[in-house]
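Re: your question about XRE family transcriptional regulator

S., sorry for the slow reply, the queue was backed up all week. Below is exactly what I fed in.
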Amino acid sequence: MLTPQQLRDYREREGLTLRTVADYAGITAANIGQLERGERQLTKENYQKVIDGLHRAILARQNEAK
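Result:
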């Protein structure tokens, strides 16, 4: 499992905003920000939502570039 800082680093390295990931993850951008800052517990459920959101956002961006 990635740490909150690693999640943030990955999101930023991919050039994704909190809002973009949140839209694909189905949770609020504020919630993701709190998770990344360690202000909120990263449960397995939320972790999976964020990871899925990151992957979906990356795939969507790649499809747009084609």
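The two ends are 31 Å apart (CA to CA). DSSP finds four helices and no strands in the chain.

Happy to talk it through on Thursday.
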